[in-house]
Amino acid sequence: MAEVKRIAVIAGDGIGPEVVAEAEKVLKKTEELFGYRFETEHGLFGGIAIDEKGTPLPQETLDMCKKADAVLLGAVGGPKWDNNPKELRPETGLLGIRKALGLFSNIRPAVVFDCLLDASTIKREVLEGTDLIVVRELTGGIYFGDKFRREGKDGQEAVDTCVYSVKEIERIVRQAFGIAQKRRKKLASVDKANVLETSRLWRETVNRIAPEYPDVELEHVLVDNCAMQLLRRPSSFDVIVTENMFGDILSDEAAMLTGSIGMLSSASLGEGSFGLYEPVHGSAPDIAGQGIANPIATILSVALMFRLSFGYEDAAASVERAVKAVLDAGHRTADIAQDRSKAVGTKEMGDLIVAAMTK
């Protein structure tokens, strides 16, 4: 009998509960098809946790996550909490949970499905063959450096410090090299080494580690050039590794190559097999409760969980094949439909994908 995998499920805010419900259907179908066993426990996080518990990250939710083998997260945030003080903002909870769980790496695949080539604003011939992963360092850099304001000679100044250690760079770069080894064996390391000292340390560290992975072709790309090349030649990229802020921006740019941010999954990983899995998109409060959100990003995040945390390659491939089959058959949610009058809803898309899953 298969080992029981414990999954902490955090639906969050907005459309989060709707898309997570469809992902949970995938878990149940996977149990039926492959005999794997999952035990889920639900917790509050984000805006709903602020409203009900007075904090975006309740201790009981954090404890639940620490006991789990993986975390499935829907989405957090919304305008309701935008004017809250920093400690009572949903985004503060995201930074807190990443740090508390030791999640230093964010993995964001960007795959362009052939049947959706016309859904993007980029020309078909530019997009064809695009299948890349952005590996973003998640717990260092300017987002976590000291922040303060001071009086300067021209009035008040604001300061955000960007700090990276060799250890932080080494662990994310080694992970990216390892991912590249299992794909097309190409790694683009993105920095701003012509200007920033942290980037010069980043590049020096990458060059020192590279000989450990002789089968991987390494390319150094300045961040501004990478932003341009993602639009000019996206199919030439395999794995991109970069620091926190650059990765935040570039992964969102890569997401839009696919035609909709509703298609993009992500994984946040630490040491070992533990990971937090979530769609790239936000809580979309403007469509929450309408049953029209695209659940594919969350469902593909479950496939990433199967592959990266549990080693269930057969189940991951089953989910990915099912998504492709449903899209190839012409089914679309409103965000990717050319004729919105024919779009399917959140629940129907989830049911179609579950029905298409096979061993």
Please report which band the strand proportion falls in: under 5%, 5-15%, 15-25%, 25-35%, 35-45% or over 45%: 15-25%
Number of strands: 12
Number of domains: 2
Strand order of the largest sheet: 2-1-3-12-11-4-5-10-8-9
CATH class type of the largest domain: Alpha Beta
SS-derived structural category: alpha/beta
Low-confidence stretches: none
Distance between the termini: 18 Å
Q: What integer is the average pLDDT?
A: 95
Question: Cα-atom Rg, whole angstroms?
Answer: 20 Å
The proportion of residues forming helix, as a percent range, comes to 25-40%
**What would CATH call the homologous superfamily of the largest domain?**
Isopropylmalate Dehydrogenase
The CATH architecture term of the largest domain is 3-Layer(aba) Sandwich
Number of helices: 12
Largest sheet: 10 strands, mixed
What sort of overall outline do the alpha carbons produce when their principal axes are compared?
globular
Task: Please give a structural write-up.
The structure is a single chain. By secondary structure, this protein is α/β, with parallel strands linked by helices. α1 packs parallel to α12 (346-356) and α11 (313-328) packs across α12. The strands form two sheets. Strands 2-1-3-12-11-4-5-10-8-9 form a ten-stranded mixed beta sheet, with helices on both faces. A two-stranded antiparallel ribbon has the order 6-7. α1 (16-34) links the parallel β1 (4-12) and β2. The chain has helices at 16-34, 47-53, 59-67, 90-100, 124-127, 166-181, 197-209, 223-232, 244-255, 296-310, 313-328, 346-356; strands at residues 4-12, 37-42, 70-75, 105-111, 131-137, 147-152, 155-160, 186-191, 217-222, 239-242, 265-269, 275-279. It has twelve helices and twelve strands. The chain has two domains: 1-104 and 264-359, Isopropylmalate Dehydrogenase, CATH 3.40.718.10; 121-258, Isopropylmalate Dehydrogenase.
